[in-house]
Amino acid sequence: MHGALERRRYDWHWHTAALYHALAPLNTFSHPLLPVFGVIPALAPGFFSAAVIAAEAAGMHLQKLASQPDDEIAQIVWSVASNQKPSAGLSDWDHLVEQGTTSYLTSRNDPAPVLPIHMAALSRIAVEKALPFNQSQLSNETITRFQNSIQKVITNPVLFTRYENRPQNIESGLWWLAGPPQKSDLPLADQVEMEIVKYLQKKPGQTQHDIEEYLYELFPGLFTPSRELVRICLQSYGDSSSSVPEHWQLRPQESPTSRRRDLAAVRSGLEALAAQIGMETQGENPVFWNDSQGVQVCCFFLMASGIISQYVLNEIPLPPSSCILVLPGSRANLVAYKTRRDPRIAKAMSLGWRFLKFRLLRQLLDRTNLTFEVFEEQLQTDPPHWEGESSQMSIFPAL
What we know:
- By secondary structure, the chain is α+β, with helices and mostly antiparallel strands.
- It has three domains: 2-177, no CATH class; 188-250, Arc Repressor Mutant, subunit A; 256-379, no CATH class.
- Helices cover 43% and strands 16% of the residues.
- The chain is built from 16 helices and 13 strands.
- The protein has helices spanning 2-6, 12-23, 26-29, 45-57, 93-108, 114-127, 142-154, 188-202, 208-218, 227-237, 256-276, 309-312, 332-341, 343-349, 358-365, 372-379; strands at residues 35-40, 60-68, 73-80, 160-163, 174-177, 206-207, 238-240, 247-250, 280-282, 287-290, 296-302, 323-327, 354-357.
- The strands form four sheets. It has a five-stranded mixed sheet. Strands 1-3-2 form a three-stranded antiparallel sheet.
- A hairpin with a 6-residue loop joins strand 7 and strand 8 (247-250).
- The longest helix is centred in the middle third of the chain and has 21 residues, at 256-276.
- The relative contact order is 0.08.
């Protein structure tokens, strides 16, 4: 080992060549189109590139790819094809990288770190059979060429924007599509939240592992949700059974019927509160408060979920400082988590969005001589805040 390390020549180019020589015999000893399953632990952009490029040169064509963000592990299924022929030019990598990265971020609809973006780009090149497909085409410059291509594409400000204050390190921060925002599908985190709630409605009493297996089928490949996101969604909506620990079911107040009653009560409460401070209400959802001159003073968005992106990332009828999200207190930690993980939401919230929890609304209805100024002051007393892994679950669930 000392002699090997002393040479100091081991880099990703060397690793690619070593993996090629280890994988190439599969073409000799394997049946054509035999699926080969590979696991790449300690996942890093260079390691992933070395494995995929080496496998392609060895005649193993990438078929499927999956990644677990918590474990930093990639799983790959290759097909062995000794007579593989290229279908795309080896010089067209920039275009394929752009296609792979933009397609991945568009489908995810969430800013992402560079590793899955890197994997999406190289996977696109591999699927298009534009990687070196034999040893003669595999050179020491192959990985460098790909690294240069992806850096050129994702640092193009016309295509991508970056949320990070360390520009010298391309592997840090989160990346997102440049250009004006467009109304599109819900972000990945919101889709995961919706599916978890629907699953608990249909199959109460399941473990987090059971729920994760279900989610992995719905969100395959590079869209696999993190266990942290799954856990926080479960804590927001569910209770873990005391008789069978770690088995989750929806809280009684989280049933669709119960939440519909809550939303109706919230709207009635906003009408009563408006009357108390001399305002009039308008609309169902959103609900507007109008002053005596009929001018819209503020706007309330009523919701039972933590999917605030549908409002804060889209056009709204009033400035953000006049917009208020009305939601259950049990969504607070989930909303705070989404704000931390998505810089777009954090940026939107910094423009002045405020929250009104169901319980605070009930407390305000019990007050007398309430003014609009006091109402606005009260909105600042109980904003959503992030409680990480070390926090304890509350004894009494927030309603």
